[in-house]
Amino acid sequence: MATNEEIKNRKRIQVRRFVPEEFPEKHYLNEEKGLWAWLTTVDHKKIGLMYLASIAFFFFIAGVLALLLRTELLTPARSFMDADVYNQVFTLHGAIMIFFFLVPSVPAVLGNFVLPLQLGAKDVAFPRLNLASFYIYVIGALFTFYAIASGGVDTGWTFYTPYSATTGGNVMAMTFGIFILGFSSILTGINFMVTIHKMRSPGITWSKLPLNLWGLYATSIIQILATPVLAITLLLLTMERLLGIGIFDPAMGGDPVLYQHFFWFYSHPAVYIMIVPGFGIISEVISSFSRKTIFGYWAIALSSLAIAFIGFLVWGHHMFTAGQSSLANMVFSFLTFLVGIPTGIKIFNWLATMYKGSIDMKTPMIYAMVFLFLFTIGGFTGIMLGALSVDIHLHDTYYVVAHFHYVMMGGMVMAFLAGLHYWWPKMFGKMYSEFWARISAALLFVGFNMTFLPQFVMGSQGMPRRYFNYIDQFQPFHQFSTLGAYIMGVAFVLMFGYLLHSLLKGERAKANPWGSRALEWQTTSPAPLHNFEHTPVIVNGPYDYHKPMSEFQLGIANSHNGHHHHEEVSAKRTETEQA
Amino acid sequence: MNRLSEFMLPPQKSTVAEGTDALFHFITTTSIILLIGITIAIIYFSWKYRRRSENDVTPVITHNSALEISWSVIPLILVMIVFGWGLRGYVNLTTVPDDAYEVRVVGKSWLWEFHYENGYVSVNELHVPVNRPVRLVMSSDDVLHSFYIPDFRVKMDVLPNRYTSLWFEATETGESVIFCTEYCGTAHSNMLATAYVHEQEDFETWLLTAGAADLDMDPIELGAELVSRNACQTCHSSDGSRLQGPTFLGLFGSERVMDNGERIIADENYIRESILDPNVKIVEGYLPVMPSYTGTLNDRQIDAIIAYLRTLQ
């Protein structure tokens, strides 16, 4: 409770209720039209959608590559492509999925779209910088296409030296593309951090910040601090190849293990760049579809930050067999287990949120449940790989492949799909077919487990990763896995179909089709160009489902709003509200 | 549950395998129990608390200290058990017994060489005695490789310009597959070898006679044997098909076009140079990826290989 003195220092503002208009005539999609308006827009929502189109394109490319890989692996020897082609295909599958899909997917697409809406802000803090981030991403992508067209890359997405320094193909263009891409990631991180600090609507204190934004905030910290290390590493790699300066290549007096340290110092935190924003989405979806206050708000918020910080100190667990010292192995193993604890806490908090809720199993909630199941398996198998003696056996086998697909696809992609289906009505003002969305989710779940569960068994039995040929005993597992991959392919085609149908002929969405209390649902669907026609005022936490909807639709009553300094809200809502 | 672990893991053929498997088994079992619990909670809550009407009122439950502390502390205890257990196993894996028998291992793209105390070199065949600790001192001639014997639960990266080592004690005689598990290019998945575990006397006999048998063979027979033993066939076919390197069929005496446009007749000197210093002259359309056999093959053995290649016309 605020003391009298504190209340005296606060400025009283008049608020009234703003019920969002249903089926608005004018919104951000039709206010400015034409290709040029899209390409030069500084609207965070449109930039988010341009990212969505881009990552969907990359996901399609890398997904087709995955199906080619799985098809080749139907037989132990050559099926239809050569070893060199296979090596290029798995490299591109990994590099495109990670750098062009996973890293930008949640922050750049869903984060961009929803972050200012959840803050009640008109846009991000630096709208032009936001557009610049998008074009930097595009330029990075163009370099990558150039690399593929001019010889390809066969190093694996990790670019380990000295192989990457000696092999043919165009490793330089590829690493340069990823170098450029890193800047896009850094700038987005800075933009989000500043926006969260400076552009919260009146009343959004740190304890009322949606958990999605805590997730994005933690992600931004990692993006800003870790990505420069990747840039430096790739620059050193370029200097070594072009100028012959010995840094990583032992032939020139360098140290290949040093490269691995540099690489994983970025790439392990990058795993959290991919998954932490997913945690944010899951918190939003579970609370919305359970119509219930989130359990352990601070536990979820702070565990994201804890993961972000401890995540910087565990990179060495990728190198237990690489030749680093036994002491380093011990310390990295210990810290790896510590990072598992905040992750486990989140799972239990989400389950506790569902307890005694009012659960509506709509598509976003189904994806959230699929996430919980698959990500839990990903987490447990991570514990397995963190155990030193067991990792010696499992390192660089299909067990690792299955583990990170459970985390990245079972975790991150499912969280992304939960978010996409959750915010879809807000993005386009259209609903999708719930029936086909459920069929697709079910196929995806079955296909995913069929693909990757057998890989745990293969890996435990010793099947190494990145193998073009394999010994006969693994063939049944590979065939089963390939069958699962085809089912997933069908599920994604189906998803593309019903989403396209939704865009063209979908039923119009209401402003708040899920009955959510979250701020982004208290404006029209699709949102107006500047998100809200009023300055929202927040008096309750984002998950206070026990409070009436009217208390979540408040805004400053007088019209000259939005440009005052430090408008603090009085806690005495009853005096000011005119609902 | 034990059956599941046995199904998932390869046979235990070294002294450390049992310890590693016990931890694997413990984590798998605990995880499955917890996963079943979480899954039941998801399904039960989804059904029990399904939405009955749009006006459902949900209770305000923001935290529960007892519950939160227990679901933080119990997992913490569990992972600390796993950490300690894994560390103990790792200490075993890295503490080499004093009386270990040493074999020098060299990884090259894409073969494994094993150098024994008497100077004998075997390619892609590791021979070791049973029930005796064996220490492998390993290095690479080119890029990173990783030496992995699933049956023994041992793995270690093999680096250029640096020695790494691993040790194991095989507990039964027989054969076990050896994989390269660090991606090393085109024929990475063909960089296989076999570990042959012998009784002590058999091993000694093998070591004494391994090179000696060659003396009885005529050069062509010996050449064919050496081509097979030294893993030449990983990259060079003898039936005309194209692999990572040019085929041996019709090679000897033919005119070769080099990548710099030079034309060379493949005579004895060309073959000898291509074995000892393979990346000096590269045939057009191929990459300079062959490892050198200097120190692996002696002059007499090279003579035999040339004699064998002459027969492939």
CATH topology of the largest domain in chain B: Immunoglobulin-like
Oligomer: heterodimer
Please report the total strand number of chain A as a whole number: 2
Helix percent of chain B reads 25-40%
Helix content of chain A: 55-70%
Number of E strands of chain B: 12
Look at the helices and sheets of chain B and give the structural class. alpha+beta
Spans of chain A with pLDDT under 50 lasting ≥5 residues? 570-579
What is the ordering of alpha helices and beta strands of chain A?
Answer: HEHHHHHHHHHHHHHHHHEH
Counting DSSP H or I runs of 4 or more residues, the number of helices of chain B is: 7
Instruction: Report the end-to-end length of chain A measured between terminal Cα atoms.
Output: 24 Å
Q: Which strands sit side by side, in order, in the main sheet of chain B?
A: 3-2-1-5-8
Integer tally of domains of chain B: 3
Sheet with most strands of chain A: 2 strands, antiparallel
| CATH class label of the largest domain in chain B | Mainly Beta
Q: What is the CATH architecture descriptor of chain A?
A: Up-down Bundle
Task: Give the helix/strand layout.
The complex is a heterodimer of chains A (579) and B (313).
Chain A: H1 4-9, E1 15-17, H2 28-31, H3 35-39, H4 44-72, H5 83-119, H6 127-149, H7 163-166, H8 171-198, H9 211-243, H10 256-290, H11 297-310, H12 326-354, H13 363-386, H14 388-394, H15 398-428, H16 434-461, H17 475-505, E2 554-556, H18 573-576
Antiparallel strand pairs in A: 1-2
Helix pairs in contact in A: 4-5, 4-6, 4-17, 5-8, 5-9, 5-10, 5-15, 6-8, 8-9, 9-10, 9-11, 10-11, 10-12, 10-13, 10-15, 11-12, 12-13, 13-15, 13-16, 15-16, 16-17
Chain B: H1 2-8, H2 17-48, H3 65-94, E1 101-108, E2 111-115, E3 121-123, E4 125-129, E5 133-140, E6 145-149, E7 154-158, E8 164-169, E9 174-180, E10 193-198, H4 200-209, H5 219-229, E11 255-257, E12 263-265, H6 268-276, H7 299-311
Parallel strand pairs in B: 1-5, 4-10
Antiparallel strand pairs in B: 1-2, 2-3, 5-8, 6-7, 6-9, 9-10, 11-12
Helix pairs in contact in B: 2-3, 5-7
